[in-house]
Amino acid sequence: MGLFNKKNCAICNEKVGLLGGLKLKDGHLCKECKNKLSPFFTERKESTIEDVKKQLEYREENYKLLDKLEINKIYGEFGVILIDEKNKKFVAVRDTGGGLFSNPKKVTSIDDVKDQNPDIIDLKDVEDVEVKIIQTNREEKQTVNGQQVSYNPKHYTYMIGFNIIIKVKHPYIKEMRIDIKSGTVQIYNEGLRKQDDYIAGFVKDKLGLKRVENKAVHYDNLTIHNLVEKAMQVMPDYSYGFKCSLKNYDRIKEYAYYLALCDEIRSSLLNK
């Protein structure tokens, strides 16, 4: 019978339901109070009631300070990163829609995401920024005599997503993972993507990665666009390892844009 005993939230004293709500080290937490904590906080089960109360006090103060930010850079269209270069601070939001089934919204100021109470972080407390490019692919087939058969050579569609992982020194947050694009860039390619020294060198130089990906509101900056155009000209036949054709050229440029955008974000966050 003990399993079904109703418990009270250690913070607001409301009932937490039949299964006892969310566990703390020395109590239980209701979902409403849990949602007031930082969305990047991952140490709930190891936290005491007193720890949670202190974080909620910090979160209330954080909300009051959001209006004082002077945001001058905004990156991303699903998750977003907003930077105040004057005061050397930034905030990050994992999902601008605010929920699993919500559509992302265009963010033009801190007011657009204030309801999520994003944590204000000092740029000096950014310890590292990792760009994670996630790539998968599927084979595309053609219909011959009523049957699905492979092309020769095989054709593939590559699905590529872009994540920014920000590691910070903060009492409640270790890292912030942001998916800057809604969905993936999808590139149609004749044959497997070519992995050559130029591609590996470009990614290593721009993003600090060891090599090209090996796992199966745009920021309008002329520097990014110039970089994309230059890279495309260097490899007109195999840009970024993709065989250029009328079917995929625009998508390759889109991929190149996000690659350069990731570099711009990384540079802005590490420019302390």
Keywords:
272 residues; alpha+beta; 4-stranded antiparallel beta sheet; globular
Break the fold down into its secondary structure elements and pairings.
Elements: E1 22-23, E2 28-29, H1 31-34, H2 49-65, E3 73-75, E4 80-84, E5 89-93, E6 121-122, E7 126-144, E8 147-168, E9 175-179, E10 185-190, H3 197-207, H4 222-234, E11 238-239, E12 242-243, H5 249-270
Antiparallel strand pairs: 1-2, 3-4, 4-5, 5-6, 7-8, 8-9, 8-10, 11-12
Helix pairs in contact: 4-5
Question: What's a quick, concise take on this entry?
Answer:
The chain contains 5 helices and 12 strands. The chain is of the alpha+beta class.
Written account of the structure:
The chain has 272 residues and is of the alpha+beta class. The chain has 2 domains: 2-65, no CATH class; 125-270, no CATH class. The chain has helices at 31-34, 49-65, 197-207, 222-234, 249-270, and strands at residues 22-23, 28-29, 73-75, 80-84, 89-93, 121-122, 126-144, 147-168, 175-179, 185-190, 238-239, 242-243. The strands form 4 sheets. The protein has a 4-stranded antiparallel beta sheet with strand order 3-4-5-6, covered by helices on one side. Strands 7, 8, 9 and 10 form a 4-stranded antiparallel beta sheet that branches. The model is unreliable at 207-221 (pLDDT under 50).
